[in-house]
Design goal:
Chains A, B: InterPro entries: Anti-sigma-factor_SerPK, HATPase_C_sf, HATPase_dom, RsbW. Chains A, B: It is an enzyme of class 2 (transferase). Chains A, B: It holds the Pfam family HATPase_c_2. Chains A, B: Its EC number is 2.7.11.1. The complex is a heterotetramer, with two copies of chain A (162 residues) and two copies of chain C (99 residues). By secondary structure, chain A is α+β, with helices and mostly antiparallel strands. Chain A is 31% helix and 25% strand. Chain A contains four helices and six strands. In chain A, α1 runs antiparallel to α2 and α2 packs antiparallel against α4. By secondary structure, chain C is α/β, with parallel strands linked by helices. Chain C contains four helices and four strands, in the order βαββαβαα. Chain C has a four-stranded parallel β-sheet with strand order 3-1-2-4. Classes of the chains: A alpha+beta (162), C alpha/beta (99). The complex binds adenosine-5'-diphosphate (2 copies). The site of one adenosine-5'-diphosphate (ADP) has 19 residues of chain A, from α2 and α4.
Amino acid sequence: MKEHETVVQLSIPADAQFIDIARLTLYGLAAKMGFSYEEIEDMKVAVSEACNNAVLHAYNGRRGMIHLRFEMSADALAIVIKDEGKGFDYKQVAKQAAPLSAKPIEDVKIGGLGLFLMEALMDDVSVTTADGTEVRLTKFRHRGEGEHAHECISPSSVQEQA
Amino acid sequence: MKEHETVVQLSIPADAQFIDIARLTLYGLAAKMGFSYEEIEDMKVAVSEACNNAVLHAYNGRRGMIHLRFEMSADALAIVIKDEGKGFDYKQVAKQAAPLSAKPIEDVKIGGLGLFLMEALMDDVSVTTADGTEVRLTKFRHRGEGEHAHECISPSSVQEQA
Amino acid sequence: MVYIKGELDLAAAEQFQRAVEPLANDATKLLVIHLDELTYIDSTGIGMLVALLKTRKKQGARFAIENVPPKVQRLFDLTGVSYFFSEANDTTERIGGQS
Amino acid sequence: MVYIKGELDLAAAEQFQRAVEPLANDATKLLVIHLDELTYIDSTGIGMLVALLKTRKKQGARFAIENVPPKVQRLFDLTGVSYFFSEANDTTERIGGQS
Ligand SMILES: Nc1ncnc2c1ncn2[C@@H]1O[C@H](COP(=O)(O)OP(=O)(O)O)[C@@H](O)[C@H]1O
Ligand SMILES: Nc1ncnc2c1ncn2[C@@H]1O[C@H](COP(=O)(O)OP(=O)(O)O)[C@@H](O)[C@H]1O
């Protein structure tokens, strides 16, 4: 853990039903950090794609968990999505991460958009597949100043009227 | 972990700023389980009271974490809120957990309502102070049938109109 | 008049104190707290309101809490503070406070 | 016409398939998917819509996707599916589908 970094961790079953819980937590933290609506929506999709993959590919139908780690620092939010599943050949797969091309619809293969979307929606994506799969997604804050993550919002507001 | 139990875990810094994240997660899970609006509001307050105590009393101003564990079973949601702080004499304190009595406002002492509210708002409260403090809050589902936690909601709905 | 919007919890405590303190200490004016848009309160927030009431009472200043949402009222009732708040509201009305 | 409300994600996939399949297989009727109230979609949902389009195309049946919220449109554009969806909508209009 780096200096000046605040960490929140969330573990959910590798079950499609719980991915929205990951989105809720992400939303709460990213809003607190002052990310824009669009940035938050982008991160929601990217994080969900990583979770979808853990649900679909990691455990071959066995039960397992997805561990999310939200690292908040002055200049970025990094989300690490980890499973303890079978892993995969990331280098090989990453080469194929691309949007659908304009060929006849009959020839379009569905799937393979997950990693592409993570790349497209985040500022940085890195994947480690040593012991299960660990996807690290980073979004930088485009604000310039190095202020603290906490200072920017308070959830409540008091309004006076004389 | 008991059979037929689904577990979600959340760790947040022991900092007031993050207690709303605990409420968000609680909301998402309790709604999924089919708890009513009122039941969810009650649980939100109870869980927040336990978190407030960890923030205010556990770490004497040092940094620390709060670990939440949501145990979903067919008949109940249990939330365990744990800190690794200094602990306290629960038996002693529990005796004083009571609402404010109708004495002159000048004599009313503020504080000491947290444990009382947890007791009042949840079906069961148990506290262990062996290694830090662990508060276990339980809300039963008043539905009778022993159906599975997952079956009751899907976050999406598709509506047809011919 | 003060409108409290959002969550009155531990995280909001400091901001609340800062905003309300100057008003609380002005005993010449009626202080009315409106809770219509309060989405969340717990013992921390209730404690802050009770403290405010004590401050006002000590000064003999008028104070009222209005438009309490049902779920907030429920917590006021449970914790026993409704008694003090409704007493304060009554007193305020008796000495002629208008909201 | 089908209105999709809420989140079209992995958790909703089964429910979506179950609801839409009978309609998808009825080639005689125009199938219009309305997305006004879609609050979330990701590659799973996009995949389901593309699969639906393929099914309809194979049958020579009419299909259109309408009222796409901006954030959903953005993902359609990014992933390259907008091309197929707008083509389908055009064809549907040409052969006289009314929404
Ligand atoms: N967490 C994971 N565990 C195992 N394999 C994975 C994981 N994530 C991705 N993969 C592999 O990478 C491939 C590409 O993933 P992705 O681009 O998200 O597309 P899709 O999931 O639609 O196939 C998957 O098909 C799968 O084989
Ligand atoms: N997690 C905790 N760690 C240490 N002490 C605690 C903890 N929770 C409660 N306590 C002790 O129990 C007392 C009563 O708690 P509570 O009923 O919530 O009221 P309050 O927090 O307003 O004092 C606290 O004042 C504190 O001394």
